[in-house]
């Protein structure tokens, strides 16, 4: 190969110039001469339109033929170019530099680079995924049909909330919003938070509605409440009955049953109390426990608002959200009350004089006894004078 010999570029051989990979991966191996020659080919590529001479490269890069030949050998060895010879000229076919990730997957290329810059430097070039990264790329068969056509699988919007159908069911069941703007935002947030579609969200909204109005607070309580309590305590037979009955009815029906046993009916005031408890976010099953405990302790045919609100405030503070938790709390109330009564009984003073006790010991001294006798004598003399 001589400087005056011609060469052509292969037609239809445009390549993408990957400057990052050339500098990171190739340059330490191929060196500056080979990189300069490769850059020259990319810059002067003309789609095979005219003849070039090797002397053009030498003149532009300012080095001799030997350095050009070595550079060409290196470029072909690293598959950056393919060098062809014909009867009348040479042909140059260009290849794009491999991305750094693919370059390092070639064990020979990687070892060559490690010899030049060291293992630590090569490790820093490796693209590393986080340990919890999940590959969700589609396979060929998932995207293309058996005849090579794209499958028509339009992706639906994430967590689509069909408000029109939601409101249609509300109208059918007689439900309404407290504040439509705030409630719609809250319902969408609720559905997204727990991964529900619009219909699943509606079922909870309907179940927890207060006086046929959507209650976002009770929806949250319903979702977050758990039928299990810590340490899985055993419930007595009476407590199991309470839990079963409390879950069976809504608050108004539950209260009506108790009132019926006492030959009474629900008053407007009591209905208002139940609504206030529901507005506090309590589920009906928890309200029923409060109602039962209040009615049994106040021994009245009417619901005592002061007493039940005292329980409600304590339940709210303790984050009581299920009937099981409520029963356990009521049990602790009763145990605490029994303990307090026992302590009071022990501390009560007896009205019986101490000296009447068989074990009583008189510790009065002789001087104290004489003084008491003198006081007794004077008192008797005064009484006699009054009688005279």
From TrEMBL:
User: From start to end residue, where is composition biased (Basic and acidic residues)?
Assistant: 335-346, 360-376
Where the record annotates domain Replicative helicase loading/DNA remodeling protein DnaB N-terminal winged helix, the positions are 1-225
**Which residue windows are transmembrane per the record?**
none
Q: Where is the composition biased (Polar residues)?
A: 348-359
- A Pfam short name: WHD_DnaB
> Which residues does the UniProt record annotate as the domain DnaB/C C-terminal?
257-326
What InterPro entries does its record include? DnaB/C_C, WHD_DnaB
- Belongs to which family? Belongs to the DnaB/DnaD family.
Protein's name according to its UniProt entry? DnaD domain protein
